[in-house]
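TASK: fixed-backbone design
INPUT:
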C-alpha cells in the first residue's frame, strides 16, 4: 500500500500512514479543520479498500456532537465505521462542516460512496474500531490529525 496520498496540486499529502504494531496509524492533513477530518475519513477507508474504485452513487449524512476536537474526531470516525459495519458502505467523498456551539463542537458530514462489493472492491484490512491512543488534532500551518485504528 502506498504510504502517501497526494492531492495532486503540489501541496502536502492528504494523508500518510505510519507503522503501528497490529494496528493502522495515519496522519491526515488539511488547510482547515474540516479538510483534515475529510482526509482522515478518506484514509480510514483506504485502509479497508482502494478508494479510487468506489463510485459515488449513494450518500449518507451524520451529525455528531462532542466536547472537544479529539473526541469529535473519534466520534466522527466511529460513525463512519458504524455505517460500514451495518450498511456495508464504503466512501470516497467526504464533506464535513464543524461549528462550535457553546462548549461543544458539532460536526455535520455528507459522504458519497456505495455498498462494498467484493467483485469490484479490493478487500484490505477490517477496521474494528478507532482508538484514543495517540489521537491528536494539531493546528500548525493548517491542521494535522493523528489516528490509530484497531484492526
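OUTPUT:
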Amino acid at each position: 500500500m502506498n504510504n502517501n496520498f497526494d492531492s495532486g496540486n503540489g501541496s502536502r499529502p492528504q494523508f500518510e500512514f505510519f507503522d503501528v504494531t497490529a494496528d493502522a496509524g495515519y496522519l491526515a492533513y488539511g488547510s482547515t479543520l474540516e479538510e483534515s477530518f475529510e482526509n482522515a475519513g478518506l484514509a480510514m477507508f483506504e485502509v479497508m479498500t482502494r478508494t479510487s474504485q468506489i463510485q459515488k452513487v449513494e450518500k449518507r449524512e451524520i451529525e455528531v456532537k462532542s466536547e472537544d476536537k479529539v473526541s469529535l474526531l473519534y466520534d466522527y470516525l466511529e460513525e463512519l465505521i458504524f455505517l460500514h459495519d451495518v450498511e456495508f458502505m464504503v466512501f470516497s467523498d467526504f464533506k464535513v462542516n464543524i461549528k462550535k456551539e457553546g462548549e461543544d463542537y458539532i460536526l455535520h458530514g455528507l459522504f458519497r460512496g456505495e455498498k462494498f462489493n467484493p467483485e469490484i472492491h479490493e478487500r484490505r484490512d477490517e477496521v474494528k474500531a478507532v482508538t484514543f491512543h495517540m489521537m491528536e488534532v494539531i493546528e500548525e500551518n493548517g491542521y494535522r490529525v493523528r489516528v490509530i485504528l484497531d484492526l
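COMMENT: Residues 6 and 83 are 26 Å apart (CA to CA).
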